[in-house]
From TrEMBL:
Keyword field: Oxidoreductase
Ranges where the Cysteine-rich domain occurs: 3-63
Taxon lineage: Archaea, Methanobacteriati, Thermoplasmatota, Candidatus Poseidoniia, Candidatus Poseidoniales
Gene3D superfamilies to which the protein is assigned, alphabetical: 1.20.1050.140, 3.40.50.11810
Protein name from the UniProt record: CoB--CoM heterodisulfide reductase subunit B
């Protein structure tokens, strides 16, 4: 994030003490705890006159859901604000926005600006993975909920060849990996094999949590499913940073991996 922010003149202001969004886990046990934690993060940003930016589609989806609930349910908002005021002296008023890096680059920075900053064009086919959590009303910016194209537009601006595949917004089963591993691995394999069958040599993920499945559990997903899933999987910010001239050694390693395993 820092490398691409410097290259594109984006000022990132850390929210010191901000908590996890819940990652789809906390709300399964205690939804009121999750919404209070996210309300605190929102209130921290509002106190500084800032929006919240995340590179994580799961955070974007979870936090956008909670933001909308807090903004539209007066009773809930007052109940949560009573907790916030007593604990940290903050209130949520609904003046900030919840933004994902992908949407900021396309809608605010502009793909023409991104393209002009490219120093190392991404010269191979890339499958952009959105995940499912972010693709909902109020969480995916002005992109199409059901047939998103922002990621493909960005890949093209970075010099790459975007791969269009049916599973780009399907779930890979995180956090079900913790309780239903076999099912989650099969879901992961389905996404990877679909992208690879359409010609992808690399998968870039807009969700670091999904990336755990797509990368760390890739070999296991292939074994469980019996399908061809071998492909380098990287984070969206990495892809952008490589194209903008950062981490040349790591980009060289990625290109080597593409040659070795991305066929």
């Amino acid at each position: 994030m820092l490398a691409l922010a410097r290259a594109l003149d984006i000022e990132l202001v850390p929210l010191n003490g901000a908590s996890c969004c819940g990652a789809g886990v906390i709300k399964q046990a205690n939804w009121e705890l999750q919404i209070a934690l996210n309300a605190r993060t929102f209130a921290q940003a509002e106190a500084q006159g800032l929006d919240v930016l995340t590179p994580c589609a799961s955070c974007q989806g979870n936090m956008s859901e909670d933001f909308i609930k807090l903004a539209t349910d007066v009773d809930l908002r007052e109940r949560v604000n009573e907790q916030l005021e007593s604990i940290c002296g903050l209130r949520f008023e609904g003046t900030m926005k919840m933004r994902h890096l992908l949407h900021v680059l396309v809608e605010d920075i502009g793909l023409d600006v991104v393209s002009a900053a490219v120093k190392n064009p991404i010269d191979f086919p890339v499958a952009g993975y959105y995940g499912s959590v972010m693709q909902q009303d109020g969480a995916c910016g002005e992109d199409d909920i059901y047939d998103p194209h922002y990621f493909e537009d960005l890949i093209e601006a970075l010099g790459g060849k975007p791969v269009n595949y049916d599973s780009k917004a399907k779930s890979v089963g995180f956090p079900s990996l913790l309780s239903e591993e076999s099912s989650a691995l099969k879901m992961t394999a389905s996404v990877l094999s679909d992208a690879k069958s359409e010609g992808a040599r690399v998968m870039a993920s807009a969700c670091p949590l999904s990336h755990i499945n797509l990368d760390s559990y890739q070999v296991k997903a292939g074994r469980v499913s019996g399908s061809d899933v071998e492909m380098p999987a990287i984070h969206l910010p990495e892809l952008i940073a490589f194209a903008l001239g950062a981490y040349n050694d790591r980009y060289a390693q990625l290109k080597t991996r593409v040659l070795v395993m991305g066929n």
